[in-house]
Structure formats: C-alpha cells, structure tokens
Design a protein that fits this description.
Elements (H helix, E strand, L loop, with lengths): L1 H4 L8 H4 L3 H8 L27 E5 L25 H14 L10 H4 L3 E5 L17 H14 L3 E5 L1 H4 L8 E4 L16 H11 L10
C-alpha cells in the first residue's frame, strides 16, 4: 500500500513522514484505494518536489469530487479542463489583477508546485461525486503535522477560508483571506493581492519570490 501511494513522493520528505507513517496507514486502511478521488498514486502528489525548495504552502479543503478534475494538487485541474471550477476561475482572475499576469485558460497549477509552492489539501481524499466524504478519517491530523513541520522551516502559508486557517497557528508568516468560492470571493478574496503579499514576505526574508506564471 505504501509503495503505491508514495510513488511520487521525493525522498527528502522522509523525515516529515516517518513519525506519522502508522497514522497514514490507519487512514488509508479505511479506504478502497481503487475507488477514491484522486487516484491512489496521486494522493500524495503534492510532495513530488524536494522539501528544501518549498517556500509557500497553499492550502485547499479537499479534492474535487469529479474524478476528471482531481489530481492531488490543491485547486488544480488537469490541462484542458473546461469549464474551470468556479473557485479556480476566481483564483486565476485574482492572479491577473494582482500581478498583471495574463489570465491562463488552463487550470493546471502544477507549474507552481515546481517553483516552490506546496499545493496541499487539508483532506487528501474523497469519493467520486461527493465532497467532504473523508472529513473524519484522520487526514486533518496528518496535514496538521505536515504544516507544523513546514512552519518550523519558515514556509509562508497562503490560507483561504476557515479550514485552511486552522493551520495558521503553525506559521510565523501567513497570508489569509476568505475562500475564493463563488459564495465568498466578493467578500474579501478579490482585491486581497495574495500572490504579491507572499512574494513581499519572501523578499523581506531575503528569499527568492515565487514565479506565479502558469
């Protein structure tokens, strides 16, 4: 089981995962790994890049329930997906308004994951067609541990919405706002300039800012 779900995980994450392997095993044993979203091999896809390159954590809630959308990276959908999920469409709009980056027609955020951003959902799985199906099987404890370790390493946390902001206590440096969903985007997400704010924190810390182009 471990070999399947950790097939994309970079070896540098071993010290982070080692203390919670039994907890992860307990959580995974509650699942039919052939019937989860995202597919089994993508559950830990967020950890493909080396730990030492991570400068920003972007927290989502749980995977898209549409199996064609979920890819193991928070908010991201595979290239070519149309129409974009509304929250993602709002993220792309704010990115353009904030940094003047031409709006992308692709909702694939994997370029960010290759440039220092960890795209992590608070809950790592669900079942096809149902949001929040796995809210109570242990994922929050696992992702809290990961967030705690990242906070110790000076990572900047980008936290949208209440579930993500539960992790704020682990970080010295956070950028927070309401969630980009259609229900809340106009109540503080639009105009919040999250991407430039993250970069300003990194610059102030003497670290390389994120290239947010897609």
């Amino acid at each position: 089981m471990k070999a399947r779900v950790f097939s994309h995980v970079h070896s540098s994450w071993e010290p982070i995962f080692q203390p919670i392997y039994s907890e992860i095993e307990t959580t995974l044993c509650q699942l039919d790994l052939d019937a989860v979203v995202p597919q089994c091999e993508d559950i830990f896809r967020a950890f493909t890049e080396p730990l030492e390159e991570i400068r920003c954590l972007l927290v989502g809630q749980d995977p898209y329930p549409n199996p064609r959308h979920a890819m193991g990276l928070s908010f991201s959908v595979p290239s070519g997906t149309t129409p974009l999920p509304q929250s993602l469409k709002n993220i792309v709009k704010e990115l353009s308004d904030d940094l003047g980056i031409e709006p992308s027609t692709s909702g694939d955020l994997s370029p960010w994951s290759q440039k220092g951003v960890l795209l992590l959902n608070r809950v790592l799985t669900t079942i096809p067609g149902e949001s929040n199906a796995h809210q109570k099987i242990g994922w929050q404890s696992i992702t809290s541990h990961i967030a705690s370790e990242l906070g110790k390493r000076g990572v900047v946390a980008l936290l949208w919405g209440n579930q993500a902001q539960e992790l704020a206590k682990y970080f010295e440096f956070t950028v927070e706002s309401v969630h980009p969903s259609p229900l809340s985007a106009y109540r503080g997400f639009f105009g919040s300039k999250p991407f430039s704010r993250v970069n300003q924190i990194l610059i102030n810390l003497g670290r390389e800012p994120i290239d947010w182009t897609l």
